[in-house]
Amino acid sequence: MSQQETLLTRKRDPMKVPKLILAVAVALLFLFPIVWMFFVSLKPESMPATTPFEWFLPPYTFVNYLDIIGGSDIFLWVWNSFIIGIITTILTLVLTSLAAFALSKMEFRYRRALFVFFIAGLMVPGEAMIIPLFEIIGDLNLLDTYSGLILPMIAAPLGVIILKSFFDGVPNELIESAQIDGCSDVRLFWNIVLPLARPALAAIGILTFIGSWNNFLWPYLATISESLYTLPVGIPMYNSNYSESYILPMTVNALASIPVIIAFLFFEKHIVKGISFTGIKG
Fold this sequence. Notes:
With 282 residues, this protein is an all-alpha fold. It contains 15 helices and no strands. 70% of the residues lie in helices and 0% in strands.
């Protein structure tokens, strides 16, 4: 046997086929509820199903989708979720990057104590801050407004910690040479440090947008007008009117899932990299 054949034999994984089969089985297991949801959404409203397999059999109809589009504010909920998510993400990236740059590359008193303060922010569960946050937003007359939905969500201590650790890796010699050439702190931040942190910024931005899009508790508490409902709030409110029906609630959920699925297909690599970069596990 030649040396090349020996190396190829060593690199062979005898468990490759079982692992592939297991991965496909797990993927199908996670995809099954989504497929079932879309099949149910295509069934006629008055058609009963006595067995689970009947949900996948004809007849099919798109009338349910037309009824949802004409009889609900789903596009308004999507728009509200999108606008709130985009603005929240932009403001979070701006504030976290500025704070991380100051903590990493600027000298001032109590810098370490302030960093410990950010770390301590990770230890406080969000549910514990709901009541004082509600009272503060109410005193500022920001309830039932876009500002009231966005401003409480831009506090991201995890983003500050991630970016600070990333900025710490930028050589101080590079910073000092730029300062000797007359580079101001703003230009140093914008032209030198920030471009180097694009992977970290992309990870934080993606996770922030996903968190804002899926957020239910705060928008549910802070909104009164139906015109400000987001998808996580509007869908349960709509489904509660059809609590004994399967078809229309599944249709509105399927319709709301389409933009999310499309976005995931386009940004799959970035989302996976963002989760692996931050070390977050489900």
